[in-house]
Batch of 4 targets.
Target 1
Amino acid sequence: MATENTQQSEQERMRELVDLLRRAAQAYYAEDIEIMPNVEYDRLYDELQALEEKTGVVLAGSPTVSVGYEAVVSLPKERHASPMLSLGKTKSREELASWLGDHDGLLSWKEDGLTVVLTYRNGTMEKCVTRGNGEVGEVVTPNARTFVNLPHKIAFTGELVVRGEAVITYSDFEKVNAQIPEEGAKYKNPRNLCSGSVRQLNSEITAKRNVRVIIFQLVSAEGADFDNSMEKQFAFLKEQGFETVEYERVNAQTVVDAIGRFEKRIVDNDIPSDGLVLSYDDLAYAASLGRTAKFPRGAIAFKWADEMAETELLEVEWNTSRTGLINPVAVFAPVELEGTTVSRASVHNVSIIKELALGIGDKVKVYKANMIIPQIAENLTKSGTLELPKVCPVCGGETIIKKEADSEVLFCSNKECPAKHLKAFVHFVERDAMNIEGLSEATLEKLIGAGLVHRFRDIYHLSERRDEVRHLEGFHERSTDNLLESIEKSRSLPVARMLYALGIPGIGLANAKLIAKHFSYDLEQMKAAEISELSEIDKVGPVLAEAFYGYMHDAEKLEDMNALAEELTFTVPEEANTEQTLSGSVFVITGGLNHFENRNELKALIEARGGKVTGKVTGKTLCLINNDAASQSTKNKEAKALGVRIVTEDEFLAEFMPEVL
């Protein structure tokens, strides 16, 4: 027991250190703020490294490891070694007590995300595969390496296979949706967001979504013995650094009360859940029960009995999203459900409207799915009289019904529908793009709605329609002049900012700068570039290369871009005219500086001369710049071990930038 407590204490300390060091590094490298002295950072780093060596566990996010992002063209498929079956379900608490009989069980959350299978060999994660259809899943190993709580290295060196649920918390889900201004473009629930995040072709996108994985089953552990106990399997997995599903040990007499305790915590539970799972602790007994064609007999799922309320359907609102999809939302007489008042529920698509046979005035039963999301369960009247809108509620364009994923959905057919373009224009004018002050989303909506702006280039012709702008609601002489002046200022800019402003899928400002630099800031060269050449650009890769190439070879988009480019003057960044004396050289900067306000200032000078600055010393590092060259810091130790020169700031400048001294 003492050993187990020691292991738990060591891992808790490791988690503290990882969190503290990660925050310090973020402040230091991204915000240019020091929240702790270098010597303290190095001391904590060494403590973490010692604990990792002692326990054999390396936690996700540890500064001792670096996770590189990967992009793929498609996700490879792989057949599971054994089928991943669903669980039998019940809503009866008494049935669970009967199901247990005289056996002990583990009652745990049934997390609501995307099920994955993880394989470790020699202490390192080798593979991650999604559940897929239960027989064949998709390999998402590069993405799994970005899961925020998944250990990169474990002490156990035999083959280990575990199953877990990849999830995104409600709080992280809200943060992602808060960054999406358009209501129709927001994600519907954490499960959908998580599924899309885990199955991304570019792992850098996955990394931004804070995906975590909760382990709920140990499939196999080569040579390990767990005394026939599932609970001891969980204890073993925790020792390896995994986050396991929360559970209570129960029997037939205590399981109903335990369900009640879980139920009270649903509202405050940050991890999405759609019920509970009850499993036998006795592994041999569970295995002896075998399985049906669909379900294993050693575990059963408990689904919450939903509280229903009867109400009247008052109207259906139709909202057009940026994709042109027109989403129906049912509005009904307010009712109390699970302690809150609800009056609206998404109906999702035309197929569901038809299936429910909805009509205004119908009597419907509503509930909260998973005790959280309002839904229509049943239509008692089934009048079927609801008419689908024949025109888009935003632009009045004709609507059409399309088939998507076996469901009928309503779309606006008007390519020029403002709802489809507003978000693109909001991105176009933002600070890192065209940087047009005064063009807020509300202002853009007025300009688009008045027919003054259809394409990006139209913004640069608003001066010709000054009187029409002046008479829009909320405008006056001064605000009109200020807007037009801001537009004129934005005409001169680096070509990379225009590329970013266009909204090419996956192309951020950093990627746009790399592409522009590679082609000597010549837009014509970029338009003619092949995928193979684009793919070879550092940090671009095949997926982004294909997206960029596709945009440049879309006749309509190319025409719009060319028309916009005629309105602009492209400036060449100052560094492009600087002699590239450091081209191909890699440097690391640490500690305080004397000639510069901060490390970013020196970094900018190095990059302007073609050099590269990284945060970690490797065999490719030309030299480590550190004014305390004799210190015993981690970076100094790494440099000495790799034979990398350690130079002071003055020594570096004298050798590489004498003109600065």
Target 2
Amino acid sequence: MITDTDLRTHAEALLRQLAGEHARLREDQWTAIEALVVQRRRALVVQRTGWGKSAVYFVAAKLLRNAGYGPTVIVSPLLALMRNQVESAARAGVRAATVNSGNVTEWDAITQAVAAGDVDVLLVSPERLNNPDFRDNVLPSLASGAGMVVVDEAHCVSDWGHDFRPDYRRIRTLLADLGDDVPVLATTATANDRVVADVSAQLGVGSDDSRTVVLRGGLERESLHLSVVRIPDPAARTAWLAQHLGELPGSGIVYTLTVSAAEDLADLLSASGHRVAAYTGRTDTAERETLERALLDNEVKALVATSALGMGFDKPDLGFVVHIGAPSSPISYYQQVGRAGRATEHAEVVLLPGPEDRRIWEYFASVAFPPEPVVRRVLDALRTDAPQSTAALEPLVDLNRNRLEMVLKVLDVDGAARRVRGGWLGTGAPWTYDEERYGRLDAARAAEQQAMLSYADLTTCRMRFLREQLDDPELPADSAVGCGRCDNCTGDHHPTDVDATELERTRARLERPGVLLAPRKQWPTGLAKLGVELSGKITDGPQPGRALGRLTDLGWGRRLRDVLDAPDAPVPDGLVRACIDVLAAWDWHRRPDSVLALDSPTHPVLTATLAQRLAEVGRLRDLGVLRRNPEHPPVTAANSAFRVAGLVGAFEPPAPTEGTVLVVDAVTDTGWTFTTVARELRRAGADGVLPFALAAVR
């Protein structure tokens, strides 16, 4: 056991190497380090962003290494977090390496370095824990030789958390294989009482065990100045940001709820003269690193980002966080705004909510854990002797790839399935669908959404409200005590008026119609299992198409949603004019000869009249409506293979035709309807098919 009386002095020296010559350990940081290093205990640390959680585990890791213990294993959720932490560790002389999806070519060398004792800290993404080779060949040796295990952003382990990741639950296996004297540290900045209790149960930290140290601090952030700007019109909301972005301090992050909104907003702000760039889940790894560095070095005013830029991005002087659209949870919101003002006296936090936010929340809620009958079909599909890949399972269950992966991971953690080389196997172990748990999760999600709506309408202290939502243990009991900094406490509200010229320019740019519809290029795998003999490259599909706009667009989204939410009616003149503008700007290789409307189950009049009007204006042959087969069941599948199979025979055979056909529909989502219809039209004699929709879902 380490008892050196100079240990704290050594810890202070390491902290100065890590955080600068003026850094000093706070008492609660030392309490955690002492518990881990000297007493070899487990600890749960729930502290606000900027408290210094990473300093605790890097200092403890180095002290343990100096005492002859094995390397520290840190389970860390995001590549951005890993990159920052490796750089931080190097400053303190800590030799750190990472194993994640972004450095596959380095895994063998890193494994050898760990075995040779040349690594002090190994950062592992949670997804690696369930990789068969890593789980079976690397993880056991890590567990047996680890000096300490750290679970960073531990709220991800919780079904109650705002960023639930099934792979995090695999950590229980890692911890179960540890010796009793191996210290474990779980850390998070964003957890209310429910999440803390769930994390404690999942990881075995934070319980009533006397060997566990729990450090839970207050969430007050004196640098954050919270405000809400209510502008219902999306064009005016965007113009407000374009007008005021340059006034915000330093550089920062502008969050959006969807990828398309981030990309559109970044284009618009750039056109207004601001140095910004989009950062989303579609941004490749190399570009992410470049963009992160640009923000760290203040080479951009802001990154316009989805939640892909969140946990672990460390810029202490980040001057502002703006949200165009409200996150669905105050826990998620606090986690994102906590990126700002960590080493500054003043940081602006602005929320611009929109009436479309709830629709986006509903979409994300719809892709949560599926109902029991669907999960049972997954289990039935796993009753085979040979492993099945996710792609092979897709044609057997009506789930898209992401949801299927989530279900398989949960079943794996619960012992009903196992990931092996070549795919997945069922274990045959009994499995119970925890309906009560998922019901609680749905209720919690609904309550958190309501809390965000309440936050936007508050007339009292905004920081106090967020601290209440996160069960801050240091929140003053007197409800009249506010932060003294938010717009409600100070009475200093941002003006909502927008410069007329800026609004006109913004509206013109946002309402510039036209969205590319990229054609499907490959048939889904496994269609033969569903009785459909299609596979490989699509050679008889449509050409690239167009939509007037996306339902999530900042410009056209609201107008399209209003039309589609209203009772079915003839297409409005304004939409026809906009559609004509899209067609006029279309760089097609051959002008269409005819127009064909698809029989819409929800908007038959809207779709048919749009096709008629386009035929009149463009002097095209009006082929009428391609009717749906009345004996064919509605196509509701989300999974691509099931959707294609369901679309076979969904429409009556088209009449013989020739030339290029413009095919019109009200809404397009997956693109498979246009693909299968194009195939039938080509078989009927068409030379080409040009898809056109009023609205693309995303």
Target 3
Amino acid sequence: MPPHRHAYRPVVMGRRGAVVSAHPLATMAGIEILLAGGNAVDAAVAVASTLNVAEPFMSGVGGIGLMVITHARSRERHVLDFIGRAPKASDATRVTEAEIDGGPKACVTPGNVGGWLAALERFGTMSRAHALAPAIRLAEDGAPLTWKSCEFIDKARATLARSADAERIYLGQGPLRPGRVLVQKELAGTLRQIAEGGAEVFYRGPVAKVIARSVREAGGWLSEEDLAAFTPEWRVPTDVPFKGYRLATVPQPFSAFQYLQTLNILEGYDLAGWGHNSVDYLHHLIEAIKLASADRLAYAYLDTTTAGLTTKAYAAAQRARIDARRAGVSEGERYDAATLPGQILAGHPAKYADEHTTHFAAADREGNVVTVTQTLGGPFGSGFVANGTGIVLNNLLKWTDLAPESPNRLKPGRKAGTMMSPTQIFRDGEFVMSIGTPGSYGILQTTPQMILNVLEFGLNIQEAIEAPRVRVYRDRLLDAESRIGAPVREALAARGHQVNVIDDWSWIVGGGQGIVRDPESGALMGGADPRRDGYAVAV
């Protein structure tokens, strides 16, 4: 048995605040801000910018993100969308798959800086200089590489080779080894300019000019005009009931509706009666994921919201399509023009119209909660560093399609489809939980598993994050962490699932971070994923 009931790590607890992120130094940056009198928004900006330094392969200034904010004083909830658009010069007919996989043509307009500063300006209490100070200091002085950092950097050698600056910064400071200090003075200089001049410097000032010139000279599309046109967007969260709780997450055109539909379908079963990670539970979870994934591929990339997708009536109709004894055939996580025999097709939600990413969160004693997922698109994004800035640009165009018939086809000014689904959960209007994960398409499968672990199976937040998970792919293929026992895996195979066993603790099924509030005492409890460098601290 693990030393902490069903977990190897203890739940961290405090009353003044909690911060969870994918790296201990980023978590400590948020705690530093809370201890200095800042609120959860100030702390989240410190965490976001420090992750750029400590976990540079997952997110940073050159990336994009989504944020859910609960504001204590107004008791309002907001979604901040800071996802950049495809450059105006982009053209699906003049680019190859390899060029949008990485390099100067792969990036959309970076949105993270605009998002961080918009949140800070509206709901924060500290100056830009104060909130960005931990990241600037760490970039200037250097951050020790962890075992996981070395693994990601080593696997990204081909990506980093796309840019001389990227190779110099991440591979040119000596052999990769845990404990070696990675210094990023150019990034520190860029962050210092942002602290002094704000978003204007980054989107219309000297930083923008350097980024655009670097991309243009390398044959890419991103221009000064694209950068100048960027504006973060405040949106109303999607709010869906589930067994007495309310789940608040990002609305369409983002893809969180997939996991919400998965939960709605499963709500009609006695999951607790089946037991955690039992064959019946996992089979129905997998089949619900397939149905919801088919709808995402059909409806997520439309220009208008598809009404009915998250209604209970539609979930009941979808539930009726599940065969309790036999695995269905899935199209998979991504659009594929080739249809498989017997493939699960999208449902008809309109009938029910009436009815390599990182994740982190911060909560404070006043009741402010910030839940954020941000990304570069893939490890080190495009691999392209804008000259002299230390900024690794994203490769978000990789997540579009070049096929003319795809609903997610690359076109100028369009936002790439994103699976990022930061979520907050409430009961009777009171905050219960913040949850989220990286993992590209797997986000929409890992998120409901972690939520059900807490709400349905009674696990604490650390147990819920550590519990073994599955991930569903094309046809009947699925990954299962080997901690899901052989008898259950064999029983799934008997129902037609093609089970691929992965490591005990695999980053393939995400790297979740969460915060839970005790309803009686108000104590904040944090959990972080050991599958990566996740770390939780509470004060």
Target 4
Amino acid sequence: MIKNELFTADERTQITELYKQLYTVSKDVLLPDDDQKVRHYIRVAIEKGLLRRDTFNLNPIINDCETALIVAEEIGLNRASILGVMLNGVVMNGAATIEEIQKDFGEDVAHILHGMLRIRDLYAKSATVESENFRSLLVTFAEDLRVILIMIANRVLIMRKIKDTPYVDEQRKVSMEAAYLYAPLAHKLGLYKLKSELEDLSLKYMEHDAYYHIKEKLNETKRSRDAYIANFIGPIDEKLRAAGLKFHMKGRTKSIHSIWQKMKKQQVDIDGVYDLFAIRIILDSKPEKEKQDCWQVFSIITDMYQSNPKRMRDWLSVPKSNGYESLHITVLGPEQKWVEVQIRTERMDDIAEHGLAAHWRYKGVKSGQSGIEEWLANVRGALETNDDMQLMDQFRMDLVEDEIFVFTPKGDLFKLPAGATVLDFAYHIHSKVGNQCVGARIGNKNVTIRQKLQSGDQVEILTNTNQTPKQDWLNIVTTTRARAKVRQSLKEMESRQALLAKEELDRKMKNKKLDYEEPVLMHTMTKLGYRIVTDFYAALADGKLDMNSVLEAYAQQQRFDHGEVEKTTPATSADHFVMQENALIQKKGAEGSDVLVIDQNLKGLDFQMARCCQPVYGDEVFGFVTSGGGIKIHREDCPNAPQLRARFGYRIVKARWAGKRGSQYPITLRIVGNDDLGIVNNITSIISKEEKILLRSISIDSHDGLFSGTLTVMLDDTGRLQQLLKKIKTVKGVKNVSRS
């Protein structure tokens, strides 16, 4: 067995057991000498000292073994994928080349390792999942889609093992990637069990209090919940057995992440979420009787309990693109509680748990390369995207629970997210069709571009060559594909119009015999309130700026720059002067306007600090491109950050502090304590004595011997903020003070 300082005594025992377990699981798909060859490569890598523990101090060989077990047991992949995982560390650290692996294990294993090397190169450029990497990541995955599954398996393993890690920052970064990249990928592939685990663990590490609040509530109500489930399914069990059906039933509490999303969406505590659990009825049916049996169960249950037709989901007639088949209904059970019931067969349940990897087991192919190829064809169909979109936003829009199916007049079938409009469908067909769309004909009725489509609609798109995209179209389309194409068309139109406006300005300058001078034009633009050249020309093209007024301003600025005119400022009386605090703040902000570097190396961009989280110099931050084109700077732990990354990943840009120039930022502190005499004076006294800290406002509310309230202070960095927090906490009677 492998013996080396890389392993502790416990790890040596663990790796021996893992090898036995992995060999037992995979012996039917491995070749006779695969095991010995893998051990040889790993032993060489260890002897050369090439294998290192990762960021979380986890053993690389144990990690690879455990990942391979997930790949084999929980996903269902075979030889090439298992060997690719086991040899990953060897190749990544230079102990063996792709060519050597290909010679000893075959082209299939080498192909997987090549894809994993490309992913490593992407991550070397950026340790976190950023929007500019998403499309490249998709290209890498598409080279061999099994790489996606290996990456998901590895991320599941890491998330399971970092529960008590002291590396909190790294834990948060890994969790964010799990939530915003790997969980959606697992969902797309139908790996619902792994997807739920990734989401729950991400919530646990990123929003600890929310996770344990829900978990404790679920534990408190488990006994009553189990009793209710037993009471609900008892009569159903009798009816189904009387009908001669073979089945088993189980009650399933919804994932903590799912419950948390419902709480946020409905703005209620867990007690206000009525569908905390679902009943699953799994039938043992012959292939030719699957649908018939499922609909029979549906009929029996809806005869017993009132159903909610708005919450019915029929994925029997038209399965999801990832292969998911099931019938979901919601019925009104005892005590007037709504209960979700899922009806499926053993085959359908296996596919729901293990994704598309389970398909080939039900198509007469027991194992081998032909089975994997058939399965991969299904995966490619599920993941196929033909548009020029950033990966994460594409997945975000495509992974909605509901899908609709519409037909062209020729009978071609198209699938769109629920809520898609006529305009979405037009852009789904072609960009040109979308740009010229004026409406549609559904059945014998003309409808507008805003019309929402329903499953089964036969849609004929109506176009006009004079039609062009409008800005408000962004409020009409719902799919990422259509939204990106509208933006692209608007940008192209704006560029063309801006170019025409520039040519017209140049022509009129010549007519008025004004010499074109770029610095003068820049000064004129600034004076007119424009910092970005394209915005200036767009305003000219739209008529927001009068061409003659611009020429007059340019001529005056030119005379001033050449020293022909003296700049005078009229004196104002100081009798009624009042210093505007906001004006002072803006001025201070302007002095530090270039303390941030946006994206790669861009300075001088127009940005604002987000009010929701009030970033301060020193905070970990990111930029968010607003619909108006400006950039808002948010803290990484901003309460709105998860939603922004989830819904608008393509708008996220990197940001970092590049220097400190004396700017002050407003910070809101929340404070709670005993309502002792003089406590407020003690707090304000501390703030007033602090250098470079200004108290802007204070709001305190007292009730039953306690007080709570907010303080808004102006300060210049996180270091000064931490010092202030420590000093306020020392005030007698203060129970808690925190940053809002």
